[in-house]
Amino acid sequence: MKIKLTILVAFVFFISGQLSSQEEITIRIKEGMPMIPVALPDFQFTETSLPNNEIKNMIYETLWKDLEFSRVFKLVPREHYSYISRFNANAINFKDWASIQANILISGQLEVAADERIIFSLKVYEVNSARFIFGRNYGGKKDLGRMIAHKVADEMMKHFGEKPLFTSKIVYVSETGSDKEIYIMDYDGFRPTRITFNNYIDMLPSWSANNEKIIYTAYRRLNPDLYIFDIYSGKTELLSSGGVNYAADWSPSADQIVYTSSKNGNTEIYLKDMKTGQDKRLTFNPAIDTSPCWSPNGREIAFTSQRNGTPQIYVMDAEGSNIRRITTEGSYHDSPAWSPDGMRIAYVSRIEGRFDIYVFNLKSNDISKLTENAGRNENPSWSPDGRHLVFSSNRSGKYQLYLVDYDGRNIRQITSAGENKMPKWQKLLK
Amino acid sequence: MKKILVLFVALSLILLLAACGKKAAKVEPVKKGPVVEKVEEPTTLVEKPILSEEEIYQQKTIEELNKYQILKMINFDFDKYQVREDMKSIIQANANWILKFSAVQILIEGHCDERGTIEYNIALGEKRAEAAKNYLASLGVNAAKIKIVSYGKSKPLVQGVDEATYFQNRRAEFVITKK
């Protein structure tokens, strides 16, 4: 009887599970590649090194988190390392590591000098063939420990045929009190650096194609104009005049930007040649046209238009022709972001007062929902490798930045001070 | 006779007592209201001058004129940028004032409630400011004296999450920039 009841309960759970998964709009995107199992034993100090565990642990933890985040590598759980003999960089017992299902073994050695300069030596092995694959040495001041770990993680990505992303940065707007300024930080939320110092409203920053400039809107002259800030020279240049000017996106293939402007009376999308300064109007419509965004090959532009009554996402050719509507259901969509592989467009939808991030697959026409039942979610931006997105959400009460995987998994908060909005992830790293 | 008198006196005494008893039962405590002291402002001979529109215009700075909202703001419907019927009289009053003082130039700020995306709200705020400008111009105000700007949802007037709050935030403000 008891067993019967258990089966019945299990069956009911099964049924209800089925039902709820049917109701869910979420469609998980499956990537064909299985993740590569990696073992990351504790780093070791060189004989001459200071035993600075703080630095060692910082590099180790940062690298561990990067690889865990990658969706390319799968870390062999640390507790499994205790089943085998202790790691010795000079005499690696590959059979041991094979026995705990590690395919790749990362060996790290750290030298901390008296002036706290560090040298980190990386050696990567393939476990089954007991073969050394590649190695590298990194040197720098101790406060660059996180950067060293990110560089190692990027090297791992490149070696396994993936695009690097861990040294990439995110530009965003941070508000403390009434001040809205632009900051740049590491992808994981660490090391924020402020780049604007004014008392105007600064907003909607984005990257130039070479990641060397930030283009943003500031209400500097009582009017929202576009400015370009050169990160390396520190110079700021005015780019527009008249009307509102915002939501600029730099072409991945040419020295051009697309942006929204109302300089001729109505918000339209313009294409500006950055060499000549010449503007070309792309939309001609009495309705609102805004939020332009390039396809990764630079041939098409996704944008928001209210030409059929409500804001919907459209795609047009870079010349402004061949306009197609992408979103067909719902009454409020905006903030399109084209994925680096060109296959998907992420955007924000307002449904019954809720703002959530959705992803539209251009090949299959499938729509997946990345956020659910957690505050207002806005301004999605793809990681350079297209496996993750950053977005802003007020789910904690205040607006903060979050990361999420392409399939809605692994949501993680990366900012906590003040309020943080309008993130843009750097473009593909060279 | 004496007996009768005694009886009479006794009877009337009883009656009186009974009457007294009845009366006593009827008496209720008097409810007294709180003592209100009448306060009156001492009348003085100096009377506050009531300024005419012209005098206000002459005497106040632009900041003061804006602070006291000489030009009133208007509100909009959710997701809309058309001027509401009930807001037209406000724009008419604003137009009358602007037409009276030919040196005045204004900036119309368009604002939105928080229930929109940042990018779309900037466009929507711009449309609201533009609608207000066009209506002012239709009432005879020289369009060249009107500038517009949109703040989207970045400058809410009030904080809150109900329709009353949202309504107050969906607005166009008429700011005097020159007089």
Cα shape of chain A: elongated
CATH hierarchy class name of the domain at 62-178 in chain B? Alpha Beta
Record the strand order, biggest sheet of chain B: 1-4-2-3
Q: How helical, in percent, are the residues of chain A?
A: 10-25%
Q: Main sheet of chain A?
A: 6 strands, mixed
Residue share in β-strands of chain A: 35-45%
> What coarse outline of chain B follows from CA principal-axis ratios?
elongated
Strand tally of chain A is 30
Number of helices of chain B: 6
- SSE-based structural type of chain A: mainly beta
Helix content of chain B: 40-55%
Report the mean per-residue pLDDT of chain B as an integer: 85
The total count of helices of chain A amounts to 4
**Low-confidence runs of at least 5 consecutive residues of chain B:** none
Unreliably modeled segments of chain A: 1-30
What is the compact description of this entry?
Chain A has 430 residues and is mostly beta strands. Chain A has four helices and 30 strands. Chain A has two domains: 36-159, Rossmann fold; 169-425, 6 Propeller (Neuraminidase).
Describe the model.
The complex is a heterodimer of chains A (430) and B (179). Chain A has 430 residues and is mostly beta strands. Chain A has helices at 2-23, 53-69, 94-99, 145-159; strands at residues 36-39, 44-45, 73-75, 104-112, 117-126, 131-141, 169-176, 179-186, 193-194, 202-207, 213-218, 225-230, 236-238, 245-250, 256-261, 268-273, 279-281, 289-294, 300-305, 312-317, 324-325, 333-338, 344-351, 354-361, 367-369, 377-382, 388-393, 400-405, 412-413, 419-425. In chain A, strands 1, 2, 3, 4, 5 and 6 form a 6-stranded mixed β-sheet that branches. In chain A, strands 9-8-7-30 form a 4-stranded antiparallel β-sheet, with no helix packed on it. The longest helix of chain A has 22 residues, at 2-23. The model of chain A is unreliable at 1-30 (pLDDT under 50). By secondary structure, chain B is an alpha+beta fold. Chain B is built from 6 helices and 4 strands. In chain B, strands 1-4-2-3 form a 4-stranded mixed β-sheet. Chain B is 44% helix and 13% strand. Chain B starts with a helix and ends with a strand. Chain B has helices spanning 2-26, 53-59, 62-67, 88-100, 118-138, 163-169, and strands at 74-75, 105-111, 146-152, 171-178.
